[in-house]
Design a protein that fits this description.
By secondary structure, the chain is an alpha/beta fold. It has helices spanning 37-46, 57-64, 84-89, 101-112, 162-170, 181-189, 194-205, 212-216, and strands spanning 6-11, 28-33, 51-53, 70-73, 116-122, 133-135, 138-142. The protein has one domain (6-151, 193-216): Vaccinia Virus protein VP39 (Rossmann fold), CATH 3.40.50.
Length: 217
Amino acid sequence: MIVVSKKVLNLYAGIGGNRKLWDEVMDVDVTAVEWNEKRAKIYQDFFPNDEVIIKDAHKYLKENYKRFDFIWSSPPCPTHSRMNFLHDEQEGKNIKYPDMDLWQEILFLDNWFDGKYCVENVKIYYQPLIDCYESGNHYFWSNFHITDIETGSNKIDIRNNYEDFLEEKTGFDLNSYDITKKEKRKVLNNCVHPELGKHILECAFKKKQLSLEDIND
């Protein structure tokens, strides 16, 4: 059902996994911010009506947040990921301090933004500093209630390679792009499942459903 258009900011947009099904929820006017030019080009190909900006998303948020009704942010995850435990075991891999941009953005949006927001990251290796919603391998912080959703099994069909599995899971065919197998796996791995992205937007702007009893009153 199409409702009133919402101005949406999609930060650290990648190729747009979270955004893929938003048009099924409502009419959205999307501004996407992605620093990597190659990923930004792929995003623009899939979503030609979105405005795509190649800038520092963290800085862009602070300077432009008042312009939007809904903000989705997916700050970089490597310093928060549980993969850091593997780095501790691997020679030549250094453990890094967690990047505090994640927590800065959550606190900033929670205190200064008048619209709805969702901040996403992978499951982190330490106890979250702020309560969050958990789905699959992701954590979500928001100022609205996110209900549970089942997005299907993450089990890989061993007859196919991992990249094929990720393309099928996310609905992005990247075979026509000049990217390495490693980069292809990385950008697809970073995608939020499109059904989950759709569900979260629905939770942010869902209309109260009146029961027959309410209507009769």
